[in-house]
């Protein structure tokens, strides 16, 4: 029975000290770690057994620099320690996770935790890094000075965990005193003096400053000119690699889907069920699933950038640009995570102290092109270029659409930030540059695996359901006509298309594309599903045609008068629409929760939808005036 009396141990420490790594090692779980500050923004709980078989509850807290902070994630950490956080019991023991290589900055929090009167054990982490820097650590001295147990560990290699578990066994050490406060007028100064003394005694720096490899790399990656060139080159290579490496597995998947459809086609008798599977489910789900390789590659590259430590350098470079948008460097990581998915990105804004800046960041986060847009981009971008043109050109176009979303987000952030007025709270951005590290493959693979599973799960549930509904909508009501085009026009979906057409025609789309846009307000990938279902039927008169390749089918689509439906101009207009439209119910729900107001979420939705429409209109009509087509 999970008794409520289960004793609770909280992991406290500065951001990036290795708390989650330790949490995972102790509880054998796989919470997300990353080599930059602010990865954990909510309290995570797990269970473990001590050396004596005693069961403990472990809490992984968000990193914080002090216990008086104003940003939501640091407040969560403080409240959890004080037992003031709803749903989490007051910890019976706090393990202060300290990065041994930067004790000067990290011990302050340890002192504050001791002052709270909670029993404390110090886990002196990253001893490997400290050693490489030539630091001479003296854990015994530190323990003696503070009167709390100190255990040197290396969390990512599982070293020292046995000793740590021993220190966590019952009875817990008694709360330590805080003699540094005795007779002190200003606790802040008293703590600073104490930290200096402790470092002098227990963490002696080598005589001369050694230039580490990280220092050397940083001279290049943080260089005002070369740093930016490297940044652009790295990002561009990621896009290029996604386009070129994904090609082989993608052809394989789309080939198998085609074969499957053909095989079922020959095995099953004609009829509605046959049609449901061959014309509804397979093209509908298939149009999304073929992009699995791109999703996997995107998350693989994000994982590599995160764990190597490069992400923190990118934040450093972007700091100046962020300031121009009225945001601080703290907004960079939330915005960057939004390229994967806006939801964790919006959650990560909890690291931002300023409430107003946080709102603005939440507002613009969905314009960082998320991975759900990738299937749409990958379907459409190649239509702009001749299929044979190199993948670097396609990568350049894709890069361009990412830049468009990002720059527009910065402009809107600036305007909005200006309107919200100045901030009362102080806002300090302290960017730590962690050391460069080799990739941690096991975490990366697990994370990529999770993402791939989530993507497939969505395809197997939401997308599957929508495919079935779409198939029904275009099969019923039935006509007697043999002509597929007539049947489509007569069907429910054809009627919806006819209704929508006047609205989307000024943007260069017909009713079928309009229907696909409409359905993608549930989730963006549904665009492909709808296109897959509608255009599959349209073109399948020709039984010899390669049914699997949706792109070939939509290149051949025409208006009733025979003009091509997808011209470069209408494709650009469509892509622009997808860059800006907020088509994700889950994001809106998270925005409402994190901003604490439905109005904010609704306003964001309305703004982005109208913006997308107008931007697309300007592109299409403007292009026409310029004689483009
Ligand atoms: N070299 C070395 N790296 C470590 C050690 N422990 C953790 N790391 C790495 O340090 C980085 C940060 O680890 P996390 O566990 O995410 O840190 P955190 O304290 O949870 O950070 P926040 O959630 O941002 O507060 C990761 O890249 C870890 O793999 C260690 O003992 N030695
Ligand atoms: Mg963490």
UniProtKB/TrEMBL annotation:
Keywords: Membrane, Transmembrane, Transmembrane helix. The chain crosses the membrane at residues 225-246, 276-305, 325-347, 359-385, 397-416, 455-473, 569-592, 604-623. GO terms for molecular function: ferrous iron transmembrane transporter activity; GTP binding. Residues 6-174 form the FeoB-type G domain. One of its GO terms (cellular component) is plasma membrane. InterPro entries: Fe2_transport_prot_B_C, FeoB_GTPase, G_FEOB_dom, Gate_dom, GTP-bd, P-loop_NTPase, Small_GTP-bd. Pfam families: FeoB_C, FeoB_N, Gate. PANTHER family: FE(2+) TRANSPORTER FEOB, FERROUS IRON TRANSPORT PROTEIN B. This is Ferrous iron transporter B. The lineage of its organism: Bacteria, Pseudomonadati, Verrucomicrobiota, Verrucomicrobiia, Verrucomicrobiales.
